[in-house]
Every structure is written in C-alpha cells, then in structure tokens.
Amino acid sequence: MVAEWREKAEAHRWSLRETVIALGPQRGHVGTPAGLADKFAHFVRHGAVDGFNVTPYLIPDGLDDIVDLLVPALQERGVYRTEYTGTTLREHLGLGEPLSHRSTTDRRQAG
C-alpha cells in the first residue's frame, strides 16, 4: 500500500497532507450545512445510502447546528422527512404488521 500511495503522490505531485486526504480512509464529512446537504442528497438520490449516522464534532453545541442548520437544508432538498406518516416506528419504516409465530389454529389446539 505504501508503494502505491507513493506512486500516486508523485504522479499527482501531492504533499503528504494532500496524499492522506486523497487516499486515506474517509471517517467523516466536513463542511457547511449547505455543502453537506448537497453531498448527502447526492448519495440519497443515487441510491448509495438510505440514511446517515451524524455525530457532531462538539457536544452539546454541535447538536444544535445539526438540528437548526443541517436538517432544514436536507428537508429543502427533499431527502429528509418534514413529518412522520404514522404513529409507530413500524409505520414510519413502512413495515407491515408482524407475523405471528403460530397460526390461530395452532393456538386453539394448544389451549
């Protein structure tokens, strides 16, 4: 891996920092609320994701930024709901009623 990184860095004339940014593991997203919303919307629209786990850099203040800035930006782009469609988690996820492990006949015979 080191040799591969070195070749790419030399070919692109990247600094060490630029090499790590370009080739290192991506462990998060950094940017403005509008920029992140654009990035997340792109992923959603292309079927690359169906949700995100978002952790603020600073707690608790970072939570306010997510709620007050990022969520509205995602809603404007139509990739984050503005209201719930049901009253249960099952309804929110679009799941049907749970299946019973035993049929009604089995329960009557057992009783």
Element layout with pairings:
Blueprint: H1 2-12, H2 16-23, H3 33-45, H4 61-76, H5 89-92, H6 104-110
Helix pairs in contact: 3-4
Low-confidence stretches: none
Major β-sheet profile: none
Number of strands: 0
The general outline is elongated
Number of helices: 6
N- and C-termini, Cα separation: 65 Å
Oligomer: single chain
Q: Helix-strand pattern, N to C?
A: HHHHHH
Please state the CA-atom Rg, rounded to the nearest Å.
23 Å
The helix fraction, in percent, is: 40-55%
Q: Supply the helix-strand structural class.
A: mainly alpha
Strand fraction band?
A: under 5%
Question: What's the rounded overall pLDDT mean?
Answer: 83
Description:
With about 110 residues, the protein is mainly alpha-helical. The protein has helices at about 1-10, 15-25, 35-45, 60-75, 90, 105-110. Helix 3 (about 35-45) crosses helix 4 (about 60-75). The radius of gyration is 23 Å and the shape is elongated. The termini are far apart.
Key terms:
111 residues, mainly alpha, 6 helices
